[in-house]
Amino acid sequence: MSQSPQAEHAMNASDARRDLYALVKRAEGDGVTTLIHKREDRVLLAPLDRFPAARKADAFPSWVLSAAQKEFGDLISRAAQGQPQVLRRNTTPVAVLLPVDTHASALSSDPAAPSGAAPTGGAVNSQGQQDRESVPRRLATLGDAIGSVLTAGPATGPTFGLPGLDAATGGLQPGRLTLVAAAPSVGGSLLGLAAARTTALVDHRTVLYAASGPNQADIMRRIISAETGGDYPRLKQGRLTPQEQQVAQQLVHAPLMIDDGSDLTAEAIAETAPYVPDLALVVVDRLQAAHNARLPLSGDRLPDASQALASLARTLHVPVLAVVDSDDPTLLGLLDADVLLTLTATTDPGRVQVTVAERDFGVIGSAYLRPDLLHARFGDAEAAPVAGTGSEDWRLHTTPEERELADAALPYTSGAQKGLPSALTHLLAALRTALAAGEQEAIDELATSLGQAAAAPPQMPDTTEGRRLAAALHAYNAPAPAGVTAQPSAPESARPAAASGLVSDVDDEDAPRDADDGLVPGDEEDEPETAVFPALRILKDSVTRSKMHPVPVIRLEDREDGPWPLISEDMDGEPRWVHPDV
Asked: Does domain 163-383 have CATH number 3.40.47.10?
């Protein structure tokens, strides 16, 4: 066996197995080679530029880091026998285990080369500078960079599953930290959930979902609601339809790993992520701007947490997506984000703008999304026209009263507020669903039921949300202003008799007065006997029975017969009010 080159340091197999991720990081980032020994077997964990053939796909046995750590002893034995073992992060080769003699010959094709010569490929790792306090940095040539890009092929990073946003961002790139910034209630968490759902359920790739805000049950319900279109408030009550139960059973084996521990920190995420096999995406939901003693990912600890997450992305070469519940530019400027997605509400409640900004380049694109909070998801804003209207915006076919009623109902349909009858809650939820989907037929079908509910609304909670909903119901039930909606003219036979000139016994001097209030003689008889609350009959009976009101109702024909008494002699001042049974 030829003399092995001097490595940066030597370790036994047990220590190397424990520190495998750190050793690979040093090999990948700094070009450091580590000598590993296991009894008589001696191998080198080396960077790829020491053995370029390892970059070729399927040229040598390859292992993801998590699997390599489990089988590390066997890999050392195989590499010592002359079979190089490639270590990769997901699908990207990052280091290689080589037999010692193979590495020695690969260092230089010239046996007379001086021991301090730099190896080919641009890696500067001179062993003749042992007196330096720090390890020399690895320098890559432009050719190395171009070669790594060409061998990697087209980028296939995770996406959001929203074509407009994916086109604006180019997907989630490995090794980069992407921040989703949104004020509370705009839906930032749902954007993180969209990326997790698409990666785990559609692409079948592993996702680590670090939940600092929601818990496991919340995430499960949101996923089922988004996948099935079921109402999230109903799912929060634990009521699943047979179809939703079937979908839930199908998601049992989805590669979505959830960590919702109360002591969740960025360091804990960074320690856990390397042990997740074939990790494709890390989602952190969420970084809280306001300080919370129970949540480490909050308050003034966010800048340090962001830097740790950015380091995690670079170390594991996976995309990290973190949600922050603020769009404050001052706070966002302190966070170490490579890409920033800012969600902003627009004047149209059915559209949210997403601005895409990249470090050093500023804003590079934007997209519009359609929030569907009832079903815990987003949709492309341009993708919901009403059938038969072409590309027109479906909101042109709804009224402001309908949109305001849907917005005012959100706190109750989402379950954030209580106090409404279940029937009204379901009715308002159906309205929100129809508006979000742009289903004009469903909106029209709900109009009658909504009108009845608005005409006799229940007692609303005495809160800001309750008062807003009461006002929205009142506005929905209010008649349209004159000239807005043309009403068909009543037929001549249905018009009041006075208006058609058929009443001849009305004095001329009384006609203008009757016209002022819109009443004509005989109107007091128009109340049907089946009226739910016969107010006119009750009033007439009460006035007749009361001795404080001795003047009875005098009909028109009685007036002309005269004379008739102006006041009754029976007036003792004692009221005789009688409330009839209704």
From this structure: no
